[in-house]
Specification:
Keywords: Aminopeptidase, Hydrolase, Manganese, Protease. This is Leucyl aminopeptidase family protein. Residues 143-445 form the Cytosol aminopeptidase domain. It holds the Pfam family Peptidase_M17. With 458 residues, the chain is an alpha/beta fold. It has two domains: 3-134, Leucine Aminopeptidase, subunit E, domain 1, CATH 3.40.220.10; 154-457, 3-Layer(aba) Sandwich (Aminopeptidase). 37% of the residues lie in helices and 19% in strands. It has helices spanning 3-12, 51-64, 83-95, 125-147, 155-168, 178-183, 187-193, 245-260, 305-320, 333-339, 351-364, 375-378, 398-407, 442-457, and strands spanning 30-35, 38-43, 72-76, 115-119, 171-176, 201-207, 215-220, 222-226, 265-275, 287-288, 296-297, 324-329, 344-348, 368-370, 388-389, 416-420, 426-427, 436-437. The strands form five sheets. Strands 5, 6, 7, 8, 9, 12, 13, 14 and 16 form a nine-stranded mixed beta sheet that branches. Strands 10-11-15 form a three-stranded mixed beta sheet. Strands 1-2 form a two-stranded antiparallel ribbon. α8 (245-260) packs across α14 and α11 packs across α14 (442-457).
């Protein structure tokens, strides 16, 4: 709450008004006291709190005060709170129940029986609560998919997760095994999975709504663990369970779209593989095929994500013809070198799509910023022996050349966007002592889709 809301709270407290020296309502501040036998926690949000600020502040309530929330709590939203701010607060509160301690002998505290009262001046507060519960559930699903270890989150696990979603929601799910993927010409996808004992799974989810006027296609990189292949990684390999952050985002988004019943057609593809090393692993300098019919010279087996995405993008465009096409992937360290951990790198051939994604991301604290995809960069991916190579091998424009590689497999689709989320999907934060999943993309895609649906209904 900002300073303007303090007077409202003070009237509800029996004790004397608080001194501004104790609590001024500044962003990221808090103050606790007892009043009439109840513990009162005041959250400082600043004067004009953004969506993410509110979500994070409310997430701290249960995450940081587990022992104090025994049987119930009461949320008192200021009268000045907008529906968006209230939604963010409700989502944040639920996210505070999430813990990464899946395998600890002493299990994390359960909040299943915690009773929560919500006080708000908004007339549609019950609807907001229900909506917030669905968004939070999707985000926590994305958290879990990234945070669980790679011996749990395998290609088969992701396929089973999708099938389970199909049983509970109106989502049609198809899963291609190796034999089916080969018959469909998904050669680049299969090449990456050759070195693993775990069979790759090409996962397709179809959500259809009778009132839809818009068809969106999503593709998420699903490398459940990345050793680098024969170009084995020399550092940071223990974090490579997160290399399916794009898959987590699009799977959780599909769940959320179905839960909310959005009037949209959504087709989601997750090429799920493990990039491992054995006698069958694909080789540097090998030339492989692809669904699009382009031959690919493999320069680096650690540039595997773009290979599976190439087949995913091609298959989606050729078989489903979506109006717009968006892929999310933890693709390059180059994107982190450019933007750090503040935003995703955005590449798109459509100005409206670029603006829409940026605007949606700003609204929910999941930022992206565009980089160019000029044709001059495509020359860097020219191969002497094949149609294209998977890596240019130079210390510049790594994220851009990777995007140009992907674009070559979109069959000239006029509205395609690539979000390189390497720096934002798995991060250090205040809610764990190690890097954890952020669910980046879930809020952004929901905001974008709802905004686009609103435009088509006008």
């Amino acid at each position: 709450m900002g300073e303007e809301n303090l007077s409202t709270m003070k009237e509800k407290l029996v004790q004397s008004p608080l001194s501004k020296l104790l609590f001024s309502g500044e962003k990221d501040s808090s103050y606790s006291l007892e009043s009439e036998g109840r513990l009162v926690l005041l959250l400082g949000l600043g004067k004009e709190p953004e969506y993410k600020t509110v979500e994070t502040a409310f997430r701290r309530i249960l995450s940081k005060n587990q022992k104090l929330a025994e049987s119930g709590l009461s949320l008192d939203f200021p009268a000045t709170f907008t529906p968006e701010q209230t939604e963010a607060g409700l989502i944040g509160l639920i996210l505070g129940t999430y813990s990464i301690g899946f395998y600890k002998k002493e299990k994390p505290k359960s909040f299943a029986k915690l009773k929560v009262e919500v006080h708000s001046a908004l007339k549609n507060i019950d609807e907001l609560v229900e909506r917030a519960e669905k968004i939070a559930a999707a985000k926590m699903a994305a958290f879990e998919l990234v945070d669980l270890p790679p011996n749990k989150i395998t290609p088969e696990y992701l396929a089973d997760w999708a099938k389970d979603l199909g049983k509970k929601n109106k989502v049609n799910v198809k899963v291609f095994d190796t034999k089916k993927a080969k018959s469909e010409g998904l050669e680049a996808f299969l090449a990456v999975g050759r070195g693993s004992a775990r069979e790759p799974k090409f996962i397709i989810l179809e959500y259809r709504h009778p009132k839809a006027k818009f068809h969106l296609g999503l593709v998420g990189k699903g490398v459940t663990f990345d050793t680098g292949g024969l170009n084995v990684k020399t550092q940071g390999m223990h974090e490579m369970k997160s290399d399916m952050g794009g898959a987590a985002a699009v799977l959780a988004t599909t769940k959320l779209v179905a839960d909310l019943g959005l009037p949209i057609h959504l087709t989601t593809i997750v090429p799920a593989v493990e990039n491992a090393v054995d006698k069958d692993a694909y080789l540097p300098s090998e030339v492989i095929g692809s669904h699009a019919g382009l031959s690919i010279e493999v320069i680096d087996t650690d540039a595997e994500g773009r290979l599976i995405l190439a087949d995913g993008l091609s298959y989606l465009v050729k078989n489903y013809q979506p109006d717009q096409l968006i892929n999310l992937a933890t693709l390059t360290g180059s994107s982190i070198g450019t933007f750090g951990y503040q935003c995703a790198a955005l590449f798109t051939n459509d100005g409206g799509l670029s603006h829409g994604l940026q605007q949606a991301g700003e609204g929910v604290g999941e930022r992206s910023w565009p980089l160019p995809i000029w044709e001059e960069y495509a020359r860097e991916m020219d191969s002497e022996i094949a149609d294209i190579k998977n890596y240019h091998g130079k210390p510049f424009a790594g994220a851009i050349t990777a995007a140009k590689f992907l674009q070559a497999f979109t069959h000239g689709h006029a509205a395609w966007a690539h979000l390189d989320i390497a720096g934002v999907s798995f991060m250090d934060g205040e809610f764990a002592k190690t890097k954890t999943g952020t669910a980046y993309g879930v809020g952004l895609l929901l905001k974008y889709m709802e905004g686009y649906i609103g435009k088509t209904e006008v």
